[in-house]
C-alpha cells in the first residue's frame, strides 16, 4: 500500500477528510458528522470510516475550529494579565470605537480577561528602549503568588514599550514560571513586538486565553494518532496560510483562530494556479455562510486587521477572508420596508432547509434551488433525502404569496437576492482593493458554491468559473497544500531617505537568525528553509502602513521607496511621490518547505458526453429541458453547453444556458460565462 497524506477540516456540520495517495495523486474523500463537544471524536470516526492505516500516513494536516469556537463562546479557562502599573485598562479602553457607530445601546464585548485578573507591577521602558525602572521583583513575586492561589490556567504579560526592549517582560515570565511551572505564559514582546499598545495587548491576551484549550486538544489528538501508528508531526493549519507543529502551538496558540477558513483560500489559490489562473477569487459557500478570498499573481492577500470579536484585534498576519451570512440554509424574509431579504439568519444544520423534513417552514436558498429544479431529491450520496413538496410550500408561503409572485418567480427572486449579496462581498475584496474582477477566475466550492458560482461570476463579468473535483471538501484539500510557516517582525521606525541600507539589512539579519532558529527547533533542514522579507512603510505623518516586498539584500533605499509608491497607487488609486516616506516595520516570513504530492492528471480526450437524464430547470423566468450529468462519469476533455446540472456526492454544479463547460486534466470543471 502506498504512503498517504491525510487532511482534516472540521466544520460546524460535517468533518471533511481528504486522503491523497502520494504515488498516484489519487484523492478520495470521507465525510462524517461533526462532534462539537469534542472534535477529536469525529476525526477518529472519519479515520475509521475511511479505512486509513495511520502507520502508512506520511503527513497529517488539520484545520481546526477549536480556538475560534473557544473565543466565540468564551468557553475559556481562567487567565490573568500582568501589566505595567497604571496600564491594566488598555484592553478595556480599546480604541473607544464601536462596530455600529450609531447604535447607542450596543456595547462592545468585555475583554477576555476581566479587570479583577489584570494585575500590575512597577517597571518602565521608554520609547527608545531604555529601561527607566527595572522590574520590581517584590511586586512580581507578589503577583505570581496571588495568581497561583487563584488557580489561573494562563498568563499574559504586557508591559509598556516592551516592543523595543522586552527585558522586563522576560524577567516577569521567568518569575511566573518559577512559581507556576505548569502555567503557560505569553509575553507581548515575543507574541507581537509592535507599537500600538491595544493591538499588542489584545493579541497577547487572546493568545494566553486560548493556549490551555488548544494545547490540550492538540496534545490529545497527537497522542491518539500516535497510538494508532502515526509517526510524524501533527501539522496544524494557521490563519497565515501555513502550518504549525504541536511545539509551535504552545507559544502561538491564537494563530489557530480562524484556521478553518484559511484552508479554503489556500486551496482556491492552488487550484487556480493549477488551471493557469494566477488571479483567483475564492468563493466558498456552505450551509450558513460564504467565505470570499482573493489571490493576486499567485499570492493571497494578507491582513493584520482581523478579530473574532469586534474590539479585540488579533494582529497575527492572516489571509484576508470576508465572511457573510449567505449559505444554503439562509432564510428568505420580508423587511419592514416591504423588500425581500436573504440571510444572515440561517436554518443551520438543524432543522435545516424546509425540504430536509425537520420542521422548518421558512424558505431557504436550498428550497429555492429545489423549486427551480437545480437540485435533485438527495444529497451526500443519498444520506439526505429532500422533499420537493415541502420546498414548494415554504417558497409559496414565505415569498410567493406575500409578494404576489408566481412560485418559480419567487424562487428565482430568493436566489437573485442571495447572489447579489455574495457579489457585493466579492466587490468589497476586489474592486474596493483596486482589483478588476474581470482579470480573475472564480473558484467556486463548498457544498453550495457550485450552485451559485456561475450566476455570481456573470453578475461581476468574471469570465471563468473553476469548480474543483471535490467542491465539498476543497477546504480539507487546502490543508495538504501548505508549508510550515512563521512570521517574525521587529519595529523599525525612521525616515526612509535618512536610513542607510546597511541599517535595514542588519535588522533583517537579526530577524532571520531568529527565524532559522525556530525552524531548526521544528526539525526543518537548512535546504528546506525559505525566508521572505517585507517592509511596512507609510507616508510621513500617516499611521496606517503598507507592506512592500524587500530584496534578499538591501543595497538601495530608492528602490524600496519606489515600490511603496507603486503599491500605494494600486491600493488607493493615488500616490504622493513628492512626500517623504517613513519605515515602520521589518518582517520575515519563515517557510519550511513540506514536500507535496501532485494531484492525479488525466489525459484529455475531447468529446461531448451524453446526459445521464434530463430535468425541467428554470432560468430567467423560462423553463428549460436541462441535461443532467453524474460527475463521476465525466472524464477529462468532456465539453458541453448549458443549461446543464452536474451532480456528485458532495455538491451540485449549475451551468446556465449558453455557457460552455469543460473538464480539464485535473478533473476541474471550467465554466466560461461568455459564449
Reconstruct the topology from this structure.
Blueprint: E1 4-10, E2 14-21, E3 27-33, H1 39-49, E4 57-63, H2 66-73, E5 79-84, H3 90-93, E6 118-121, E7 124-125, E8 131-133, H4 137-150, E9 154-158, H5 167-179, E10 185-187, H6 188-191, H7 197-227, E11 234-237, E12 243-245, H8 246-249, H9 259-274, E13 280-285, E14 290-296, E15 299-300, E16 302-303, E17 318-319, E18 321-324, E19 330-334, E20 340-346, H10 365-371, E21 378-379, E22 384-385, H11 388-400, H12 407-429, E23 441-445, H13 449-459, E24 464-467, H14 474-478, E25 484-495, H15 501-521, E26 529-539, E27 546-550, H16 557-572, E28 581-592, E29 613-619, E30 622-630, E31 639-641, E32 644-647, E33 652-655, E34 660-663, E35 669-672
Parallel strand pairs: 1-4, 4-11, 5-6, 5-9, 9-10, 13-23, 23-24, 30-32
Antiparallel strand pairs: 1-2, 2-3, 7-8, 11-12, 13-14, 14-15, 14-18, 16-17, 19-20, 21-22, 24-35, 25-28, 26-27, 26-28, 29-30, 31-34, 32-33, 34-35
Q: Explain this structure to me?
A:
The protein has about 675 residues and is of the alpha+beta class. Helix 10 crosses helix 11 (about 390-400) and helix 11 (about 390-400) packs across helix 12 (about 405-430). It contains 16 helices and 35 strands. Strands 13, 14, 15, 18, 23, 24, 31, 34 and 35 form a nine-stranded mixed sheet that branches. Strands 3-2-1-4-11-12 form a six-stranded mixed sheet. The chain has a four-stranded parallel sheet with strand order 6-5-9-10, with helices on both faces. Among the domains are: about 5-70 and about 215-255, ATPase, nucleotide binding domain (Nucleotidyltransferase, domain 5), CATH 3.30.420.40; about 75-215, Rossmann fold (3-Layer(aba) Sandwich); about 330-415, no CATH class; about 485-590, Dna Ligase, domain 1 (2-Layer Sandwich).
Amino acid at each position: 500500500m502506498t504512503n498517504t497524506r491525510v487532511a482534516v477540516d472540521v466544520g460546524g456540520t460535517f468533518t471533511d477528510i481528504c486522503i491523497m495517495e502520494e504515488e498516484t495523486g489519487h484523492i478520495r474523500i470521507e465525510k462524517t458528522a461533526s462532534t462539537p463537544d469534542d472534535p477529536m471524536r469525529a476525526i477518529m470516526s472519519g479515520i475509521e470510516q475511511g479505512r486509513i492505516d495511520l502507520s502508512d500516513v506520511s503527513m497529517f494536516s488539520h484545520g481546526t475550529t477549536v480556538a475560534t469556537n473557544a473565543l466565540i463562546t468564551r468557553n475559556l479557562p481562567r487567565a490573568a494579565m500582568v501589566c505595567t502599573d497604571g496600564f491594566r485598562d488598555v484592553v478595556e479602553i480599546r480604541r473607544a470605537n464601536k462596530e455600529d457607530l450609531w447604535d447607542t445601546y450596543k456595547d462592545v464585548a468585555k475583554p477576555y480577561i476581566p479587570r479583577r485578573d489584570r494585575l500590575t507591577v512597577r517597571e518602565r521602558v521608554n520609547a527608545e528602549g531604555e529601561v527607566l525602572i527595572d522590574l520590581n521583583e517584590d511586586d512580581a513575586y507578589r503577583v505570581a503568588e496571588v495568581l497561583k492561589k487563584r488557580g489561573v490556567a494562563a498568563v499574559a504579560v504586557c508591559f509598556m514599550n516592551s516592543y523595543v526592549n522586552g527585558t522586563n517582560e522576560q524577567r516577569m515570565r521567568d518569575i511566573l514560571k518559577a512559581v507556576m511551572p505548569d502555567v503557560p505564559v505569553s509575553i507581548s514582546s515575543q507574541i507581537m513586538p509592535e507599537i500600538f499598545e491595544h493591538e499588542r495587548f489584545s493579541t497577547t491576551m487572546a493568545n494566553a486565553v486560548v493556549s490551555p484549550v488548544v494545547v490540550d486538544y492538540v496534545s490529545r489528538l497527537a497522542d491518539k494518532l500516535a497510538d494508532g501508528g502515526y509517526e510524524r508531526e501533527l501539522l496544524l493549519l494557521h490563519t497565515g496560510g501555513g502550518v504549525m507543529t504541536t511545539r509551535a502551538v504552545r507559544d502561538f496558540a491564537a494563530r489557530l483562530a480562524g484556521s478553518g477558513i484559511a484552508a479554503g483560500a489556500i486551496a482556491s489559490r492552488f487550484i487556480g494556479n493549477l488551471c493557469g489562473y494566477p488571479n483567483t477569487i475564492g468563493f466558498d459557500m456552505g450551509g450558513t455562510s460564504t467565505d470570499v478570498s482573493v489571490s493576486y499573481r499567485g499570492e493571497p492577500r494578507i491582513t493584520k486587521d482581523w478579530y473574532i470579536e469586534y474590539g479585540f484585534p488579533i494582529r497575527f498576519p492572516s489571509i484576508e477572508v470576508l465572511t457573510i451570512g449567505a449559505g444554503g440554509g439562509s432564510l428568505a424574509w420580508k423587511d419592514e420596508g416591504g423588500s425581500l431579504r436573504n440571510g444572515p439568519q440561517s436554518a443551520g444544520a438543524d432543522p435545516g432547509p424546509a425540504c430536509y423534513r425537520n420542521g422548518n417552514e421558512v424558505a431557504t436558498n436550498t428550497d429555492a434551488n429545489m423549486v427551480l429544479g437545480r437540485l435533485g431529491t438527495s444529497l451526500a450520496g443519498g444520506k439526505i433525502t429532500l422533499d420537493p413538496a415541502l420546498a414548494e410550500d415554504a417558497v409559496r408561503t414565505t415569498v410567493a404569496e406575500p409578494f404576489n409572485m408566481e412560485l418559480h418567480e419567487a424562487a428565482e427572486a430568493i436566489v437573485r437576492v442571495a447572489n447579489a449579496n455574495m457579489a457585493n462581498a466579492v466587490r468589497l475584496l476586489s474592486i474596493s482593493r483596486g482589483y478588476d474582477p474581470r482579470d480573475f477566475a472564480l473558484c467556486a466550492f463548498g457544498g453550495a458554491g457550485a450552485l451559485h458560482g456561475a450566476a455570481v461570476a456573470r453578475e461581476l463579468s468574471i469570465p471563468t468559473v473553476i469548480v474543483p473535483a471535490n467542491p465539498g471538501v476543497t477546504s480539507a484539500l487546502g490543508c495538504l497544500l501548505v508549508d510550515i510557516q512563521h512570521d517574525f517582525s521587529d519595529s523599525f521606525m525612521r525616515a526612509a531617505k535618512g536610513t542607510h541600507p546597511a541599517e535595514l539589512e542588519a535588522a533583517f539579519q537579526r530577524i532571520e537568525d531568529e527565524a532559522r532558529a525556530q525552524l531548526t527547533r521544528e526539525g526543518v533542514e537548512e535546504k528546506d528553509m525559505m525566508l521572505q522579507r517585507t517592509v511596512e512603510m507609510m507616508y510621513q505623518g500617516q499611521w496606517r502602513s503598507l507592506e512592500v516586498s524587500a530584496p534578499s539584500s538591501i543595497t538601495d533605499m530608492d528602490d524600496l521607496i519606489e515600490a511603496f509608491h507603486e503599491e500605494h497607487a494600486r491600493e488607493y488609486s493615488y500616490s504622493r511621490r513628492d512626500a517623504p516616506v517613513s519605515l515602520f516595520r521589518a518582517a520575515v516570513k519563515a517557510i519550511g518547505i513540506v514536500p507535496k504530492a501532485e494531484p492525479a492528471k488525466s489525459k484529455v480526450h475531447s468529446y461531448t458526453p451524453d446526459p445521464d437524464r434530463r430535468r425541467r430547470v428554470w432560468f430567467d423566468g423560462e423553463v428549460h429541458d436541462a441535461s443532467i450529468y453524474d460527475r463521476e462519469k465525466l472524464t477529462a476533455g468532456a465539453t458541453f453547453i448549458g443549461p446543464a446540472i452536474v451532480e456528485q456526492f458532495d455538491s451540485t454544479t449549475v451551468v446556465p444556458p449558453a455557457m460552455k463547460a469543460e473538464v480539464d486534466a485535473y478533473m476541474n470543471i471550467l465554466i466560461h460565462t461568455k459564449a
